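hey m, so remember when u said the tokens were messed up on ur end? i reran from scratch. heres the input so u can diff it against urs
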Amino acid sequence: MSENVSPEQTQSQGPIQDLDHQILTTPLLSTRNRSANSTSQVAIVGVNLCPIESLDYEIAENDFFKQDWRTRGRIQIFQYIFMKWLLCFLIGSLVSLVGFCNNLAVENIAGVKFVITSNMMLSGRYETAFLVFFLSNLGLTLFAAIITAFIAPAAAGSGIPEVKAYLNGVDAPGIISLRTCIVKIMGSISAVSSSLLVGKAGPMVHTGSCIASLLGQGGSRRYGLTWKWLRFFKNDRDRRDLVTCGSAAGIAAAFRAPVGGVLFALEEMASWWTSGLLWRAFFTTAVVAIILRALIDVCLSGKCGLFGKGGLIMFDVYSANISYHIVDVPPVLLVGIVGGILGSLYNFLLDKVLRVYAIINVKSITYRIFIACAISIFTSCLLFGLPWLASCQPCPLDTAEACPTIGRSGNYKKFQCPPGHYNDLASLIFNTNDDAIRNLFSRNTDSEFQHSTMLIFFVTCFFLSIVSSGVVAPAGFFVPVIVTGASYGRFVGMLLGSHTNLNHGFYAVLGAASFLGGSMRMTVSLCVIILELTNNLLLLPMIMMVLLVSKTVADTFNGNIYDLIMKAKGFPYLEAHAEPYMRQLTVADVVSGPLQLCHGIEKVGNIVHILKTTSHHGFPVIDEPPHSESPVLYGLILRAHLITLLKKRDFLHTPVRIGAEAFKHFLADEFAKKGLGNVDRIEDINLTDEEMEMFLDLHPFTNASPYTVVETMSLAKASTLFREMGLRHLLIVPNTSNRTPVVGILTRHDFMAEHVLGLHPLLVNSKWKRVRFHFPHFLKIF
């Protein structure tokens, strides 16, 4: 929430560089505006509109905190370090088990569906086969939609934008709760099995983050988990580190890519990173890789039902003797350029579709479920009907697997074809996403697919993945983007034909890389994930080239897919680079709203009044005579700490400082971060009239070293400091000593463009602002 104020200052006039002539002759700042911050402080979490708060990643280093750490010996410090690594091990173990069970469930549920349908088609009962296929998909989609809409709406969608916003310091209700975690797992299994073109990687990242947060809550009094060792993690900073490890473990479990998972968390998810966190994230993903390897070995022995060669099994793209030459570079560059254009177009259309879904989802739960069912019906009709448009192909004589394929997976689906023939479009479209990727990536299959088949499959995947992304169910983007890009790349390889030395399967990999780079705008992590998927290091140079080209091309049009979703949902995400127009403003130019102060020794009634009349979460504490020679800023105290002091009712009859006596009356656990849904409210505290006239000494519980900036600091520099330090409050102090000791407080919402440009609308027409809108992401390179 906004907790800002602006002092009464004189009107500022003068020329401002890089502005149009109109702005050069008009005062940039009019008389100081005292209106409250009116930027949006709600966002769409899943499919519901929820209030948004910020997280306290800054440690409140008050006297009580310092005394608590001074009393800890070497054993307690060892416990803290040991528990960090133990929790990382538990995160890796649980996420790997969830990832394996997800794949096992999808392979078996979808496998049973395809086996029954195929058997009916072999016997010529095509209408019954379609009815089974249609009803099973509808039932699975309906189940995913119902549990998501009624139990945990925050579980809808990918989950990566929500987790990314959380790691940036945005707190929204239900993002990483136990209920969301359970629904995310069950809903993802059901949605992916229902033949919707949705992925499992995003939900796995969200699931891993939920598991990490639940383990890092520091225990639970409700369930009797109050072990002393767990209390060290009852703060947002340690929980943030664990959630980062959980997100890395999610990618590692989804693609069996441990190094790619670490790099994904570093490049895309985390807003704050240290070498220590890098070690723990790497350890977490290593645990995931080891456990998955052991579990997959069990399945390869035939003990996992219909578990096939998709999912967690590495895709067999190429043999080790792959070779390419300089003449192959121009086609590869073309793949990257076109992939970047298609990726940006994909993001543009997806952004528009999600905004339409958001309008519809606000109406009622019935609308949400109806849309999910409608998309399921449309998808089932399309997947079952399109293969009838493809002509049957004779089985190749030199194939290593059975042709036609009888059953769930394989490169040569029989569908409606006569014996000895296969339907190449059914081999892709009437299959699971993982098996379709394996078929597209497979080597020695240059003559398997027709040009028309690949074009139809690409167009189908492109638009189905867009319309399926907004359903009220867990739905990721990674796998649909890989499938779409692989079909595009293979189509390019087929068009080039004998004019290239590269296999069609290799072009499918390059197409997937270009589409990923064009939509997600990552480079290093995507490169490593693709290499770990394909298990071939010789692909590295070409993949690097394609990713760099596609990202550069796409950046000239719009942002990456997750940033667009965060913006559409209203998350106040702080970018790593400040907007150029922020350099024209100082921090004093954007503060707004009434400032609420507390004195070092404050009357209880005044504290209650402030807490009941404001929703601020931090208050400056000042000392005035006779407690100091002149008014001076002592520090910052949190709302949660004030409520804890009021609940304790350890009040003073006279306004005197108690000093070290405070340590005898309070425990460190009382000021620790509360678990999800356990936030204390001022409305729940009832005090007598006598207690309201008593006093509280706030000095021992006030952070005496908060981050402060002078009022003349540029807004751009303050924005960088705010993000890098993971702050929730940034105090503004005057640059002269003859004024009030604190000017105001900056919070996350004060750096949002809507707020800044709302206060200073003339900046909208500045040259830098127009350049930023025309080339918004290309400028980040500089």
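this time it looks ok to me. Residues 74-122 form the longest helix (49 residues). if urs says something different then somethings off w ur setup not the seq
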